[in-house]
């Protein structure tokens, strides 16, 4: 999709699951490579995309985005649920390139807005969002749909 100085941004496929599982593990998300491969296939079949950054080896970064209609706007909203760059490769513009590719994919999907989910305990990500033009828009709550023991 995008290439800059040996860095390629392209759609993540099931074959990249082992490398992406390693990248996610560095951020504390332990996902079995086989399960991740199935999830990547499911994303490709839904209103979603997973884009990864590659530069001479294992994946350097990942962005996962979904889009959905809302009552508030005529055009769908795109939501980034994952934005991750390998800690050793941060501050090189990879996150900005992933964000640019995600925004382009959202425009192609007909979206009018782009939002990103962050946790309050990730100040670096919050600062990145502010620096790339996102405005804070409140907080969110999550509830499991399974009965808790």
UniProtKB/TrEMBL annotation:
Highest taxon listed in the record's lineage: Bacteria
A UniProt-annotated Pfam family: Acetyltransf_1
PROSITE patterns in the record: GNAT
Molecular functions per Gene Ontology: acyltransferase activity, transferring groups other than amino-acyl groups
Keyword Magnesium: no
Residue ranges annotated for the N-acetyltransferase domain, each copy included: 7-149
InterPro entries: Acyl_CoA_acyltransferase (IPR016181), Bact_Acetyltransf (IPR050832), GNAT_dom (IPR000182)
The entry's keywords: Acyltransferase, Transferase
Protein name: GNAT family N-acetyltransferase
Naturally occurring in which organism (per UniProt): Teichococcus oryzae
């Amino acid at each position: 999709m995008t290439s800059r100085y040996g860095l390629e941004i392209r759609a993540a496929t099931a074959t990249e699951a082992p490398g992406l599982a390693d990248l996610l593990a560095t951020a504390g998300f332990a996902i079995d490579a086989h399960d991740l491969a199935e999830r990547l296939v499911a994303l490709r079949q839904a209103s979603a995309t997973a884009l990864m950054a590659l530069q001479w080896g294992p994946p350097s970064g990942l962005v996962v985005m979904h889009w959905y209609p809302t009552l508030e706007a005529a055009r769908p909203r795109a939501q980034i649920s994952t934005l991750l760059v390998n800690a050793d490769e941060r501050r090189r513009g990879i996150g900005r390139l992933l964000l640019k590719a995600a925004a382009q994919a959202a425009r192609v999907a007909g979206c009018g807005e782009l939002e990103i989910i962050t946790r309050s305990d990730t100040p670096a990500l919050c600062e990145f969002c502010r620096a790339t033009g996102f405005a804070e828009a409140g907080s969110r709550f999550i509830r499991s749909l399974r009965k808790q023991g």
